[in-house]
Write a structure and sequence with these properties.
Elements: E1 2-3, E2 8-9, H1 33-44
Antiparallel strand pairs: 1-2
């Protein structure tokens, strides 16, 4: 799976335990969007 904004490729596992915990990713500006998106994708995986 390719995440364009984060500029990363990831392979998701078929079976994943669903968590009820939350993570907030905050960006300081538009230049930080790819980094924030990468952090969000990694946290989701």
């Amino acid at each position: 799976m390719y995440f364009k904004e984060a500029r990363i490729v990831a392979v998701k596992e078929k079976f994943k335990k669903i968590s009820t915990k939350f993570i907030l990713v905050v960006s300081g500006g538009t230049a930080d969007i790819p980094v924030a998106e990468e952090a969000a994708v990694i946290a989701e995986l």
